[in-house]
Specification:
The complex is a heterodimer of chains A (478) and B (280).
Chain A lengths: L18 H4 L12 H9 L8 H5 L6 H9 L3 H11 L3 H7 L6 H4 L11 H14 L14 E5 L3 H12 L3 E5 L8 H4 L8 H13 L3 E3 L10 H7 L2 E4 L5 E2 L12 E3 H10 L17 E5 L3 H12 L4 E5 L11 H9 L3 E3 L2 E8 L5 E14 L5 E5 L5 E3 L3 E4 L3 E2 L33 E3 L2 H4 L4 H20 L15
Parallel strand pairs in A: 1-2, 1-4, 2-3, 4-16, 6-14, 7-8, 7-14, 8-9
Antiparallel strand pairs in A: 5-15, 10-11, 11-12, 11-13
Chain B lengths: L3 E8 L2 E7 L1 H6 L5 E5 L6 E10 L4 E7 L3 H7 L9 E6 L10 E7 L2 H14 L3 E8 L8 H6 L3 E6 L6 E2 L3 H9 L4 E7 L2 H11 L6 E4 L15 E4 L2 E4 H4 L2 E3 L5 H8 L3 H19 L1
Parallel strand pairs in B: 7-8, 7-11, 8-9, 9-10, 11-12
Antiparallel strand pairs in B: 1-2, 2-5, 3-4, 3-6, 4-5, 12-15, 13-14
Classes of the chains: A alpha/beta (478), B alpha/beta (280).
The structure holds flavin-adenine dinucleotide and FE2/S2 (inorganic) cluster.
């Protein structure tokens, strides 16, 4: 339960499930602030004249303003101010990497701890949800139809914005549940699915039609959508798993993180056999990678009954891309971290199941293209790890399925779609794109921000009679 | 949506369903499949498109009852609806004018080769069909297969119907007799496809198989379906399901198909017990 409160300099702790208890369940780990604590935390904010936190937020949430409304007890106003820039605050409050965004720039952080902006965001959004369904305002219908491909944060944001502006919006989603990574990737214990479905219901109440089981590229091509709708938004994310291409990767017991997480989160394999989809996680699991995906896979493995779970990462803790809170929670839960370690081979038993993983130790060298120190193998340092399950969480790329029959949609050699960051336009006329499909695997908030930028441009373009030129070489920088 | 408009019991364990899915029917092609969920807590399973009717807006699926999901599907009635139905998925069969072609369907594979035979025949090929099953009880669609083949050989492993032989025996005879077969399709259980491929390999006849690996999404996002073809890892759901049978790592496929056998058995037993208690 709640830990001892820190002094004036420290932020309010957020109550969370005890690590020894939570590793046996899929319930949410962080429990949120009670009202009194939220107001105390809000009181720490010094209401800077020139707030830096806002500049750290990819969508420019009106942070000091919503915090002020909160501490004055005007919660509806706090909701209004918060949602002015962020349509999915209950989600962002839970999954944003605040420590590298808003909270990193908070002046209090220079001498003590920054204001817990993410926790306050979560508090305000949860308070709003507890008040029951909102009655949304909708503009008069403008008589134009929009197709949104993919129902992750980018697509949902654009869909909501366009519906509010009076457009008829159809979201086409390939899976049987809408929400993108929010439902198939991020586990229940970090983001309860009830929150995502509340957002989806809200969109439906705005008049958005959500059609699941529609695989664009197969059931319809992009070209057909462009012919049938006034505008198309591509928000299909980066759902294609990257594997290492090392020997033994196809043994039984080796999963992509996507497979493990999809089985667990979307298909509810943790409730097998009440739910039909099975998952097999052994006693000793190695998860390769140290991003949010890796932490989620590791923590799911623990909850599925693994005795020992390792994170195997070729760089050090410093470079681990996961949110600070996820690393911290994973450590609390007893996940073992093998930094500066890289797998070179997975070996199996005579029945084709994983028996172990051969690794090599790494040292950090000069910074590489990504700006992080390049990991260099230490010759002769190979060693074997006895594991029976290996999960590859090395990253993802856009799934090319959606691009069939759309050669004019320019893509980079990484498989991402070329789009103008200022307005979301792709090289294919009347097709906008945003989120992971453009940036590669990134964050919920950046996908949301891209959805908003594209919605503004889409509305301007359609309501101004589709002015030429569509693609302005001088403006675009990608 | 995805309502069952027609059901046939083809064999005691094989059921045919005609599903209302007009948009999928508009796009479906021979060789493709759909992902189906039978109920809200159900798993997603791939089922081959056995037939499609663009006019009527329907897709025909044939399911053999092996585990919980296929048993539950088998017990569904006309008028009921599937929880989800996604497709058409996978690459379609490469239909061309090859000359003489042989299509070998084993058990449930008969359903898969039927639309391919039809498309190949429409493309002007001489189509030889070979269909087989373990016994007469598991054989179906002999009459339909006659309408899409120029020649049809029927056999059962145990001789309980037609010729007593496994499907590779008549295939080898045709090849030995020097029939100018330009391409072979072999679709059925993995072990049968493996032996069809081994049979045709010495004759150098290109042989296409349709790999039935375990799938979750069916759209390339999980890699559960990965197979090794020509030494390269491929995702059966998007790179296939059809591959060059002479290049497939069959042992890997057979091993990976067995990942969940024990859990599948557990689910099946729980289901049988639940059904029994309902009827008690
Ligand atoms: C396990 C995991 C944990 C993460 N944790 C965090 C975190 O803590 N914080 C954070 O900020 N970010 C996190 N991320 C990243 C974040 O979730 C993504 O950056 C974000 O969801 C991208 O949003 P999107 O809208 O671009 O795409 P997605 O959320 O990927 O949604 C794309 C949708 O499009 C659908 N689709 C794909 N192809 C087609 C098609 N052909 N036709 C129709 N539909 C299609 C997909 O099924 C999916 O539903 C995490 C990602 C993962 C995988
Ligand atoms: S079934 Fe998931 S990638 Fe093929």
């Amino acid at each position: 339960m709640a830990e001892a409160r820190k002094g004036a300099r420290g932020r309010q702790e957020m109550p969370r499930q005890d690590a020894r208890v939570r590793i046996h369940n899929f319930n949410e780990v962080a429990l949120g602030y009670p009202l009194k604590v939220a107001i105390e935390e809000a009181n720490r904010c010094i209401q800077c004249k020139n707030p830096q936190c806002v500049t750290g937020c990819p969508v420019g949430v009106r942070i000091p303003e919503f915090i002020k409304a909160l501490r004055e007890g005007d919660l509806w106003n706090a909701v209004f101010l918060l949602k002015d820039k962020n349509s999915l605050p209950a989600i962002c409050g839970r999954v944003c990497p605040q420590e590298t965004q808003c909270e990193e720039r908070c002046v209090l952080g220079r001498r003590g701890e920054p204001v817990a902006i993410g926790r306050l965001e979560r508090f305000v959004a949860d308070w709003e949800r507890a008040q029951g369904m909102r009655t949304p305002e909708r503009a008069a219908p403008v008589g134009k139809r929009i197709a949104v491909v993919g129902s992750g944060p980018a697509g949902l944001t654009l869909a909501g914005d366009m519906a509010k502006k009076g457009y008829e919006v159809e979201v086409l989603e390939s899976l049987h549940v809408p929400g993108g990574v929010l439902v198939y990737g991020i586990p229940e214990f970090r983001l309860p699915k009830e929150i995502v479905s509340a957002e989806i219901n809200y969109l439906r109440s705005l008049g958005v039609t959500i059609r699941t089981n529609v695989v664009v590229g197969k059931l319809y091509t992009l070209r057909e959508l462009v012919a049938q709708y006034d505008a198309v938004f591509l928000g299909t994310g980066a759902g294609l798993p990257i594997l290492m291409n090392i020997p033994g990767e196809n043994l039984n017991g080796v999963y992509s993180a996507n497979e493990l997480l999809t089985r667990v989160n979307l298909m509810k394999a943790y409730l097998f056999p009440e739910w039909d989809t099975p998952i097999k996680v052994g006693e000793r699991v190695a998860v390769v990678g140290a991003g949010n995906v890796a932490m989620d896979a590791a923590r799911c493995s623990l909850r599925l009954g693994a005795k020992e779970v390792h994170i195997v990462y070729r760089r050090s803790r410093e470079e681990a891309p996961a949110r600070a809170e996820e690393l911290h929670h994973a450590e609390e839960e007893g996940i073992l971290f093998d930094y500066l370690t890289n797998p070179i081979e997975i070996y199996g038993d005579e029945k084709g199941w994983v028996r172990g993983m051969r690794c090599i130790r790494m040292a950090l060298g000069e910074p590489d293209a990504s700006g992080r120190p390049r990991p260099i193998p230490i010759e002769g340092s190979e060693f074997d790890m006895a594991v029976d399950t290996v999960v590859m969480a090395l990253g993802t790329r856009p799934n090319p399925l959606v691009f069939s029959d759309a050669p004019e949609l320019l893509r980079t050699r990484h498989g991402t779609v070329v789009a103008n960051p200022a307005n979301g336009r792709t090289r294919m006329k009347r097709v906008w794109a945003g989120g992971d499909i453009v940036t590669g695997a990134a964050t919920v908030i950046s996908a949301m921000g891209a959805g908003r930028i594209a919605a503004n441009d889409m509305d301007a373009y359609l309501s101004n009679g589709c002015p030429e030129p569509w693609w302005d070489e001088t403006q675009s920088s990608s | 949506m995805y309502r069952i408009v027609h059901k046939e019991v083809l064999t005691p364990v094989t059921k045919l369903f005609v599903i209302e899915a007009p948009e999928v029917a508009r796009k479906a092609q021979a060789g493709q499949f759909v992902m189906v969920r039978v109920h809200e807590k159900g798993e997603r399973i791939p089922l081959t498109i056995a037939d499609y009717d663009r006019q009527a807006g329907t897709i025909t699926l044939i399911a053999q009852e092996v585990g919980k999901t296929t048993h539950m599907l088998g017990s569904m009635a006309v008028g009921e609806s599937l929880a989800s139905f996604t497709g058409p998925l996978g690459r379609p069969t490469e239909i061309a004018s090859y000359g003489t072609v042989a299509l070998v369907g084993g058990g449930l594979g008969i359903a898969a080769i039927y639309p391919i035979c039809r498309a190949l025949r429409e493309a002007g090929n001489e189509v030889i069909g070979i269909i087989g099953a373990r016994n007469a009880d598991l054989l179906f669609w002999e009459d339909k297969m006659r309408t899409v083949t120029d020649e049809l050989i029927v056999c059962t492993d145990d001789g309980s119907y037609a010729r007593k032989a496994v499907v590779t025996v008549p295939l080898k005879e045709l090849l030995d007799a020097g029939r100018p077969i330009r391409r072979i399709w072999g679709i059925g259980p993995a072990i049968m496809m493996k032996f069809v491929s081994l049979t045709s390999q010495p004759y150098g006849v290109p042989t296409i198989v349709s790999l039935n690996s375990i799938m979750v999404d069916g759209t390339g996002m999980c890699g559960a379906c990965r197979v090794s073809v020509g030494g390269r890892t491929q995702f059966a759901c998007v790179d296939g399901p059809e591959f060059d049978g002479h290049q497939v790592d069959w042992d890997l496929l057979l091993t990976r198909q067995r990942i969940y056998v024990d859990l599948e058995k557990q689910a099946m037993e729980a289901y049988v017990a639940a059904v029994a208690s309902q009827h008690a």
